[in-house]
Write a structure and sequence with these properties.
This is Peptidoglycan DD-metalloendopeptidase family protein. The chain is mainly beta. 14% of the residues lie in helices and 45% in strands. The chain has two domains: 2-101, Immunoglobulins (Immunoglobulin-like, Sandwich); 107-277, Glucose Permease (Domain IIA) (Distorted Sandwich), CATH 2.70.70.10. The protein has helices spanning 2-15, 121-138, 270-277, and strands spanning 18-20, 24-26, 30-36, 40-47, 50-53, 55-56, 63-69, 78-87, 90-101, 107-110, 159-161, 166-169, 172-176, 180-183, 189-191, 196-204, 208-216, 219-229, 236-237, 242-246, 256-263, 266-268. Strands 11, 14, 15, 16, 17, 18, 19, 20, 21 and 22 form a ten-stranded antiparallel beta sheet that branches. Strand 17 and strand 18 form a beta hairpin. The chain is globular, with a radius of gyration of 21 Å. Mean pLDDT is 90; it is low at 1-16.
Length: 282
């Protein structure tokens, strides 16, 4: 009887070694996974052809965590998240069900002549180059964590446009709003959501004055349409530091701050990302 109870206890301990922030997740949101277990290594997860490494959590003993970003275009259904690690020289596998559900983002329907907004060749060349440069940054995952405090919003004003609004042109989904827009008059101080290293500081066609901060472990925060940028590429920045001033640079109709997040290269809801990231230290 004692032997059965011991085996049952070991099974329960192993079962609950893996935690997941939610079994249901909206498209373009982020999932936090955590394993608290001694003497394990090489912790990884697989989700729908994505392979993601866990990082050792510097804020908790014997703890490893991973951030799983869900694509905006991820098919809505139930998936199996498989986590593996090495324990006592053997590879151990754990699984959790994860259901991707509709984020119920609003839609903007726009009907225009097909040739009305045909871009010039020079613009296409520039935007492709800028996109390629940015994606090279976003897909670079630093093994070092660069923050030790909770993430914060870049300013405290009204949100004028939420993340995820669909842009439907002539009946077809062409794009979506890739960030959260905050009201900001020209010259409003914009602060860093957390500590990190500046990886982009550049005037770009669509996003105008742009600063992108690498926070480590594949986490990037982005600040668009700035009229002034106070930091250069390679410079360290502290949480709450004034990284620049708001403006109406780039492809915009008026001054505001466009705030966005990339995790492991994928674009995600920045406000949800902040909520999830702040679980790392809890």
């Amino acid at each position: 009887m004692k032997k059965i109870l011991l085996i049952t206890l070991i099974f329960i301990c192993n079962l609950y070694a893996l935690k997941i922030s939610s079994s249901n997740v909206k498209n373009a949101n982020t999932v936090f996974l955590e394993i608290q277990k001694e003497n394990i290594s090489d912790v990884k997860l697989t989700f729908d052809k994505q392979n993601i490494n866990f990082f050792k959590n510097p804020f908790k003993e014997n703890s490893y965590y991973a951030l799983l970003p869900i694509s905006y275009y991820q098919k809505q259904k139930e998936y199996r998240v498989i986590v593996s690690y090495i324990e006592n020289g053997k590879k151990v596998f754990k699984g959790k069900n994860l259901k991707v559900v509709d984020g119920k983002y609003k839609s903007e329907v726009i009907n225009v002549p097909k040739t009305k907004f045909k871009p010039k060749a020079s613009r296409v060349q520039r935007t492709k180059k800028e996109y390629s440069q940015a994606m090279k940054v976003y897909k670079s995952i630093s093994k070092e964590i660069l923050w030790n405090e909770d993430f914060i919003y870049p300013l405290n004003t009204k949100i004028t446009s939420n993340f995820g609004t669909k842009r439907v042109y002539n009946g077809k989904l062409k794009s979506y709003h890739s960030g959260t827009d905050f009201r900001a008059k020209n010259g409003t101080a914009i602060i860093a959501s957390n500590a990190g290293i500046v990886k982009i500081s550049q005037n770009r066609f669509y996003s105008g004055g742009t600063i992108v901060i690498d926070h480590g472990h594949g986490v990037y925060s982005c600040y668009f349409h700035l009229s002034k940028m106070n930091y250069k590429v390679g410079e360290s920045i502290k949480k709450g530091a004034v990284l620049g001033l708001s403006g109406d640079t780039g492809r915009v109709t008026g001054p505001h701050l466009h705030f966005s997040f990339r995790i492991n290269g994928l674009q995600v809801d920045p406000l949800n990302a902040i909520e999830v990231l702040n679980k790392v230290r809890k």
